[in-house]
Amino acid sequence: MKNAWKEFKAFAMGGNMLDLALGFIIGAAFATLVESLASNILMQLVAAIFGTPDFTELSLTLNNAEITYGAFLTDFVGFILMALVLFAIVKLLKKAGMGNFRAQGQRECPMCKEFVAVDALKCKWCTADIDPDQAEEEDLEIIEARRKPEQP
């Protein structure tokens, strides 16, 4: 039993577990902040434009069944606004050089069929130049230079 406790303690206090817990807590707080921005500020701008902060009262009656499409519309607008806020925050953090926003995933090299990162410009196996599936802004110059024919 004592050995099992030591193993559990090492697991629970290990770096990865604590990093995961801290990331989850910070992520939950960040989600609350973004949701508050979207609902308390941006949805209020929608209210100023359309005269109501939400559309939950909008409904349609069809064969004696009330379809409350307004609730869906309110949730949809809230989702779009929250997605726009997250997109803007990520773009700002990326521009400021904060965070790791590298593309995730792999694809096949068209030349050698080995797997490379989706944002790779050159295959690490056969060294062929490849166009990335997801290009970063700083890589666009390299891609454009490849496409220009060489001048004699």
From TrEMBL:
Location within or outside the cell: Membrane
Main location per the UniProt record: membrane
Keyword field: Cell membrane, Ion channel, Ion transport, Membrane, Transmembrane, Transmembrane helix, Transport
This protein's record includes keyword ATP-binding: no
GO cellular component, one term: membrane
Transport keyword on record: yes
Transmembrane parts of this sequence: 67-93
Entry-linked Pfam families: MscL
Membrane topology: Multi-pass membrane protein
GO MF entry, a single one: mechanosensitive monoatomic ion channel activity
PANTHER family xrefs: LARGE-CONDUCTANCE MECHANOSENSITIVE CHANNEL, MECHANOSENSITIVE CHANNEL MSCL
Protein name: Large conductance mechanosensitive channel protein MscL
Originating organism: Candidatus Phosphoribacter hodrii
